[in-house]
Design goal:
heterodimer, A: 3 helices, 21 strands, about 5% helix, elongated, B: alpha/beta, 24 helices, 17 strands
Chain lengths: ~425, ~700
C-alpha cells in the first residue's frame, strides 16, 4: 500500500496547462469515452457498466466482474468537420471562399487483453485519445467591417497538420471486494506532433498587421493513470466513478513573428486535460440496460495563465508591438451528459444486441474572450474575436445507434454509429472471450 | 480512502449468482458433491428462478437450471429427501423444457423413486424382490449390487427391468470409482509405500535378495527419508556381498532396480492418463446412451382434411347454412367450431371421420369471415383447419332507366356549359369588352403576351446576376419590369426571397439620383414595416450605401430565406448623361460585402452600345437581354387570345395586322383596341381584313409618330 500511496503522490505533482494561440489548437477534440462499439452505441456512457475488456483503460474497476480472459480491438472510421470563417454581424466576406474542412480517418484506436482470477483482473491496453490531422490548407480571404467604417482586412490562414496524436500504452489491475470494485490503470502517453502553420493579417484601411510562421516536430512519452471505483448498490444498479490524470508535455516550436523576424525556438507546453466521469447502470432485467453518465473534461486546463501567445501585432510606425494576454483565451470545462440503452435478444447460442443513445457535446474550443485594452484600437480585438472564434459555441446534441452479435458467449462483434454536428464515427469492435 | 477500506472490510462478500452456479456445476462434474451443493444453494439464494437464458455479465447468457443439478448433487451425496425437494423445484421451474435436462431429471427421478420404494413390495414370478440390491446401493456396495443383479437376471431372464437396473448400477459404480479415484494423495502414497515395504520384507526373508532390492529402492525414491528402506538397501548390499556377489554386480543390480522402478512409475503415469481418458469417454457414452434411451420419438403431425359447405341463405343480411366434414387417418377425439374466433360448438368424435351438425341460417356480422375447426386426436395432438369465407357481392347491371338518366344529365351539362359560354361572350359584347391596352404599360399578367418565356428566363438568372434589358422604344421594356415587380414576390424559390423595387429614372437629375432611388426603396421597405429617418434631398453615395446596408440587414433579420433586393431601374439611358463618378459610385454599391443580397434589372434603349465599351463603369457588369418584336405566333396570340369567344378575327385580318405592325406589341395593341371599337360601333363581332385596313388608315400617322 505504501508504494501505491507514494506513487500517487508523485503523479499528483504534475499539474500543467497548455497550447498556443495558433488556430490549429483551438478545435481538436480529445476522446476520453470508453472505447468499443458497444460503449459508443450506448450514447458513449459506459463508465457505470464497464463489464468488458474495452473498459480496461477507462474504468478498470468494472473488469473485476470478468471470469474469463478477453481480447478486444476497436477500429474507427471517423469524419470530423472543422469550421471555417463565416460572415457575421460585424464582418462580411468580400473575396475568397473559406470553406469548412472535412477530415476522414480510418484506424485501429483501441486494443486490450484481459485475464481474471479470483475477483482479480489484469489487463494490458492501447488507446488513442487524439488523432488530429489537416491536409495542406491555404485560405486567403478579404473581409469588410459592416458597421460604420467599412474598413477591410486580409487574412491568410495556411497550415498542414501531419499529426497531433496521443496514444496511451499501459496496464490495469482491478479487484472486487464484496460489492466494491477498485481499479487502477497506469500507462505511458505518447505525444507525436508534426505541423507547419502560417497566418498573416493586414489591412489597407488602418495600421494593423500580424504574421506567424511556425513549425514543430515532437515525440515523447509521459506517464498517466486512471482510478476507477464501481459499487454494486443493488443487483440491478451499479454506480461508478472514473478519474483520469493526464500528462503535460513540453516541446520547442520554431517561430517567425513580428517580434521574432528571425526563426526562434520558443517553449510550448501541451497539457492533456484531466477528466472525471460519474456513471450509473440500471439493468431492470436480463435484457434491458440503461446507462447514464456525467462527463467532465477539464478543458480549462488548455488555456489560462500557461497559455502560450505566439502572435504579436504590428500597429504601425512608432507604436509598440501588441500581444494578447493568455487570459484573453479561455476554454469551458463543460459537463457532457450521456445516456444510452441496450436491448439483448438471446436466441440459442446467438445473442443479438440493439443499442441507442444520446449525448451532449459541450463547446470545448479555445475561445478568444479578450476585451479592448487601453490605448489599443478595439477593432484589433474585434478582428481577433472574429478570426479565432469560428463555429457556434453551443452544446451539440449527438446521437448513437448500434448493433451487436455474440456467438456462443465467446465471439462478439459490435458496430456503432455516432453523430454530432461536428463529427461522425463508425465504430466497429471485436471481442473474444477465452 | 480509510472510510472506503473500512466499508470494504465489513462489507459482505457478494459473488454474483452465476459465479456460484458455474462453480457448483464444475464441482458436480468433478464429483465434489458437498462443494457443488454449497455453491448451487448459494446461487439459488441470489437467483431462485430457473431461466433458459439468463444474463451473466457483458453480453453473455447462460442456461440457468440449478435445481436439477442440486437434486443430482444431493442424490450423489446420499440425501434422497433433499434431492426429491430440489427435483420438485426443478419441475416447478420447468427445467424439463430442455430435452437433455428433461432426460437427466427423469433418470434422477427414477433413481430417487426406486431408492425410496417400499422394499416389502410383493413379488411375482417375473418380478423378483430386489430390495437386497437397493440395500447394497445404499451402502455404496456397487460390486455386491451387481452380483445380486446378475443372479436375479439368471433366475428371471424375461424381466425387462433387470437389464436396465444393471446398466444403472454399472453407471453408478463407475461414477463411484471415479469419485474414489481421487482420494487423498498422501494416504494413497502411504498405502503404496506400505505395500512395497511388505513385499520387500517378504522377498528378503525368503532369501530372494535381488528381487527384494527393487522394492526398497522404489520406497527410497518415493520417500527418501524412509529409514527402513534406506537401512534395507544397505543391509541387502551387505548380504549380497556376503553371498559372494562382487561390488560391480551389486551396483549393476542397484541400477537395474532404480531403472525398473522408474519404468514402473512411467507406466503408472501412463495408466493414470489412459484411465482419465477412458473415464471421459465413458461419461460421453453414458450421456449419449441416456439421451438415446430417454428421448421418445416425436409424434408425426396430425393429418386431416376438411370439407366446408357454407351456403348463403340471405345474402343481404349475411346469413348462411354452415357445415363441415373431417377426414383423418387417426382416431379422433374432439372437434370445436369457431366462427370469427368465437366458439360455436364442440363435438366428441369416435372414429377417423366426422361431420359437424348443420348450422342453419347462421347470422354473420360481416361480409368477410374466418371459420375454423380445432380437432384433437386420441394422442392429444391438435390441428386447426381454417376456412376464410366472404359473402359473394352481386354485380348489379345498370338498368335502362339509369342509362337514360345519365345520358340526359350529361347532355344537360354540355348544354349548360355551352349556354354559359355564349352568354358570357354576349354579355362581354354588350358591355363593349375591349381588353387591349395602348400606351400604358401592361400591368395585368393575363394581357402580357409573348414575353412569358423570357420572363421565366430572367427570374431564373436573377439569383446571382444583374440584368440589362434593351430594345427599341415601345417594345415592352417597362411592361416587362412591371411584370417582374409583380411576379418576383410570388416566386417560390427554395433559397431566396426577392424584394423588388421599381425605380423610374425618367427625368431624374444627377444631383437627386441616389435620393430618388433611395426614396423608392424606402417606400418599398415601409410596406415591410421598416423605416429609416427621412431621405436627405441630396443623398450622397456613401449615405445611400449605408442606408441600403441597413435595409438589407433588416431583410436578413425578417426574411425566412436569403433576401435579394431587386432594383428594377427603368429608363436608365439617363445615366449616360451622368458623370462617370456617379456611375462608379452606383457600381461600387453592387461591389460591397452585402451585394450578394442586391441585384439590378436595368432597362434602356441605347445602353447596350454605350455600356459595352471597356471604358464604361458598367462594362461586363450585366447579363444582357434584348427585347425584340413579336414573332408571328406571339403576335397571333396577342391578337386572338384576349378576345377569344367574344370577337372573331378572320385569318386575313390577323395577317394584315402582323404585316402593318411588324410584330411590335405596342402597335398590335393599338390597332386592336381601335379595331374592337370599330366593330362595336357597327354592332358586330367579326373582324375582317377590310376592317384592319380601314382602322390602319385612321391611325397610321399616329402610330408611326408614336414615342
Amino acid at each position: 500500500m505504501k508504494w501505491f500511496a507514494g506513487f500517487f503522490t508523485i503523479i499528483y505533482a504534475w499539474i500543467g496547462f497548455a497550447q498556443t494561440d495558433e488556430t490549429i489548437f483551438r478545435e481538436f477534440q480529445f476522446d476520453f469515452s470508453t472505447p468499443g462499439a458497444r460503449a459508443n452505441a450506448m450514447g458513449r456512457a459506459f463508465v457505470g457498466l464497464s463489464d468488458e475488456a474495452t473498459a480496461a483503460y477507462n474504468n478498470p474497476a468494472g473488469l473485476s466482474v470478468l471470469t474469463a480472459p478477453e481480447f478486444s480491438i476497436e477500429y474507427r472510421d471517423s469524419r470530423s468537420r472543422f469550421d471555417a470563417l463565416e460572415p457575421n454581424d460585424k464582418f462580411q466576406l468580400l473575396d475568397g471562399n473559406p470553406e469548412p474542412t472535412v477530415v476522414d480517418l480510418q484506424e485501429a484506436t483501441f486494443a486490450s487483453f484481459s485475464i481474471s482470477k479470483h475477483k482479480f483482473n489484469f489487463s494490458i491496453f492501447f488507446v488513442n485519445h487524439l488523432d488530429y490531422r489537416r491536409p495542406p490548407t491555404n485560405e486567403e480571404s478579404f473581409w469588410e467591417e459592416v458597421q460604420d467604417y467599412f474598413d477591410t482586412f486580409n487574412y491568410l490562414n495556411a497550415h498542414e497538420v501531419r499529426q497531433i496524436r496521443i496514444e496511451t500504452y499501459g496496464f490495469s489491475v482491478s479487484r472486487k471486494i464484496a460489492r466494491w470494485s477498485l481499479g487502477f490503470s497506469f500507462g505511458f502517453s505518447n505525444l507525436k506532433l508534426d505541423y507547419t502553420y502560417e497566418t498573416k493579417l493586414s489591412s489597407d484601411d488602418f495600421p494593423f498587421s500580424d504574421l506567424v510562421d511556425s513549425r514543430a516536430q515532437h515525440d515523447s512519452l509521459k506517464p498517466t493513470y486512471v482510478l476507477g471505483i464501481l459499487y454494486q448498490a443493488h443487483p440491478k444498479l451499479k454506480l461508478a466513478v472514473s478519474v483520469k490524470r493526464q500528462p503535460r508535455f513540453s516541446y520547442q516550436e520554431s517561430v517567425i513573428t513580428k517580434a521574432f523576424p528571425q526563426a526562434e525556438d520558443i517553449p510550448v507546453q501541451f497539457k492533456v486535460p484531466d477528466s472525471y466521469q460519474i456513471g450509473l447502470a440500471f439493468q431492470p432485467n436480463d435484457f434491458w440496460t440503461w446507462l447514464f453518465e456525467l462527463d467532465w473534461v477539464r478543458y480549462r486546463q488548455l488555456s489560462s495563465n500557461n497559455f502560450t501567445v505566439i502572435s504579436s501585432i504590428d500597429r504601425g510606425p512608432g507604436r509598440d508591438l501588441f500581444q494578447f494576454d493568455p487570459d484573453d483565451y479561455k476554454n469551458n470545462d463543460g459537463v457532457g451528459l450521456r445516456t444510452g440503452i441496450e436491448y439483448l435478444y438471446p436466441k440459442g447460442k446467438n445473442i443479438f444486441a440493439f443499442r441507442g443513445g444520446l449525448f451532449t457535446d459541450p463547446d470545448h474550443k479555445t475561445r478568444f474572450v479578450g476585451s479592448p485594452a487601453e490605448g489599443v484600437d478595439p477593432k484589433i480585438f474585434e478582428i481577433q474575436d472574429f478570426i479565432f472564434n469560428t463555429g457556434e459555441g453551443g452544446t451539440d446534441l449527438g446521437h448513437t445507434l448500434g448493433i451487436g452479435y455474440v456467438r456462443n458467449n465467446k465471439f462478439q462483434v459490435d458496430l456503432a454509429y455516432v453523430e454530432t454536428e461536428r463529427f461522425r464515427w463508425l465504430v466497429s469492435s471485436f471481442l473474444y472471450r477465452f | 480512502m480509510l472510510l472506503f477500506v473500512f466499508m470494504m472490510w465489513f462489507a459482505q462478500d457478494d459473488e454474483p449468482f452465476y459465479v456460484h452456479y458455474q462453480r457448483g456445476e464444475a464441482a458436480l462434474k468433478q464429483g465434489q458433491y458437498a462443494l457443488a451443493i454449497t455453491h448451487l444453494e448459494a446461487a439459488l439464494t441470489k437467483q431462485p428462478a430457473s431461466k433458459k437464458q439468463t444474463k451473466t455479465y457483458g453480453v453473455q447468457f447462460i442456461t440457468y437450471y440449478p435445481h436439477h443439478q442440486l437434486a443430482q448433487a444431493y442424490l450423489m451425496a446420499n440425501q434422497p429427501q433433499k434431492a426429491r425437494e430440489a427435483l420438485l423445484m426443478a419441475y416447478l421451474y420447468e427445467e424439463d423444457r430442455d430435452e437433455t435436462t428433461a432426460m437427466a431429471m427423469k433418470l434422477t427421478d427414477n433413481f430417487i423413486t426406486n431408492l425410496s420404494a417400499n422394499v416389502s413390495k410383493e413379488t411375482t414370478s417375473t418380478d423378483p424382490d430386489i430390495s437386497p440390491v437397493w440395500d447394497a446401493l445404499r451402502q455404496h456396495e456397487f460390486g455386491k449390487a451387481k452380483t445380486l443383479l446378475e443372479e436375479f437376471r439368471k433366475q428371471y431372464p424375461t424381466n425387462p427391468n433387470l437389464p436396465e437396473m444393471t446398466r444403472f448400477v454399472e453407471e453408478m459404480a463407475a461414477l463411484k470409482d471415479s469419485q474414489e479415484d481421487a482420494p487423498d494423495p498422501q494416504a494413497s502414497l502411504k498405502e503404496k509405500i506400505g505395500h512395497m515395504l511388505l513385499q520387500g520384507r517378504k522377498m528378503e526373508s525368503a532369501g530372494q535378495l535381488n528381487e527384494a532390492l527393487p522394492f526398497f529402492v522404489a520406497v527410497n525414491q518415493l520417500e527418501p527419508e524412509n529409514l527402513e528402506a534406506k537401512g534395507a538397501v544397505s543391509r541387502l548390499q551387505t548380504k549380497m556381498e556376503a553371498q559372494g556377489q562382487s561390488r560391480a554386480e551389486i551396483q549393476r543390480e542397484l541400477e537395474r532396480a532404480i531403472k525398473e522402478q522408474r519404468q514402473q512409475q512411467t507406466q503408472v503415469t501412463k495408466l493414470e492418463r489412459n484411465l482419465e481418458k477412458l473415464e471421459k469417454e465413458r461419461d460421453f457414452f453414458a450421456s449419449a446412451y441416456k439421451k438415446s434411451e430417454g428421448t421418445p420419438p416425436p409424434l408425426p403431425p396430425l393429418e386431416l382434411e376438411a370439407q366446408w359447405e357454407v351456403t348463403p341463405t340471405q345474402k343481404q343480411v349475411f346469413t348462411a347454412t354452415v357445415k363441415a366434414s373431417i377426414r383423418g387417418k387417426m382416431e379422433l377425439e374432439l372437434a370445436t367450431l369457431y366462427i370469427n374466433r368465437k366458439n360455436i360448438g364442440s363435438w366428441p368424435i369416435s372414429g377417423t371421420n366426422f361431420q359437424t351438425p348443420v348450422i342453419p341460417d347462421f347470422k354473420f356480422q360481416q361480409s368477410r369471415n374466418e371459420l375454423s375447426l380445432l380437432v384433437r386426436d386420441r394422442l392429444g395432438r391438435t390441428k386447426k383447419l381454417p376456412y376464410p369465407y366472404r359473402f359473394p357481392q352481386p354485380v348489379r347491371p345498370m338498368g335502362p332507366r339509369t342509362r337514360q338518366l345519365l345520358a340526359v344529365l350529361m347532355a344537360a351539362i354540355v348544354l349548360l356549359m355551352f349556354f354559359a359560354k355564349t352568354r358570357q361572350a354576349r354579355m362581354a359584347f354588350r358591355n363593349r369588352f375591349n381588353p387591349y391596352i395602348a400606351g400604358a404599360p401592361i400591368l395585368n399578367y393575363d394581357m402580357f403576351y409573348g414575353r412569358r418565356p423570357m420572363l421565366k428566363q430572367i427570374m431564373n438568372t436573377l439569383h446571382n446576376n444583374s440584368i440589362m434589358i434593351y430594345g427599341e422604344r415601345r417594345i415592352g421594356k417597362t411592361s416587362f419590369l412591371h411584370q417582374l415587380h409583380a411576379l418576383l414576390p410570388e416566386l417560390e424559390d427554395p433559397h431566396f426571397e426577392f424584394v423588388p423595387v421599381f425605380i423610374d429614372l425618367q427625368g431624374v437629375k444627377e444631383s437627386q439620383f441616389f435620393a430618388t432611388m433611395e426614396q423608392d426603396i424606402a417606400l418599398a421597405m415601409e410596406t415591410r414595416g421598416f423605416r429609416l429617418e427621412e431621405t436627405p434631398q441630396n443623398l450622397e453615395a456613401r449615405q445611400f450605401t449605408k442606408r441600403i446596408r441597413l435595409y438589407i440587414n433588416h431583410l436578413k433579420e425578417t426574411c425566412d430565406k436569403i433576401p435579394k433586393l431587386v432594383l428594377l431601374l427603368d429608363e436608365v439611358d439617363i445615366m449616360n448623361g451622368f458623370s462617370e463618378q456617379t456611375n462608379q459610385q452606383l457600381r461600387s454599391v453592387f461591389m460591397k460585402g452585402f451585394a450578394k443580397h442586391l441585384v439590378a434589372v436595368m432597362a434602356g434603349i441605347n445602353i447596350n452600345t454605350t455600356w459595352k465599351s471597356e471604358g464604361s463603369p458598367w462594362y461586363n457588369f450585366f447579363e444582357q437581354i434584348e427585347l425584340k418584336p413579336f414573332s408571328n405566333e406571339q403576335a397571333k396570340s396577342l391578337i386572338r387570345k384576349p378576345v377569344k369567344d367574344v370577337y372573331h378575327f378572320q385569318k386575313d385580318a390577323v395577317n394584315r395586322i402582323i404585316q402593318v405592325t411588324q410584330g411590335k406589341p405596342y402597335l398590335i395593341q393599338k390597332i386592336c383596341v381601335n379595331l374592337i371599337a370599330h366593330v362595336l360601333n357597327e354592332n358586330r363581332r367579326k373582324i375582317t381584313e377590310k376592317d384592319v385596313n380601314s382602322v390602319f388608315c385612321e391611325i397610321k400617322p399616329e402610330a408611326f409618330t408614336a414615342p
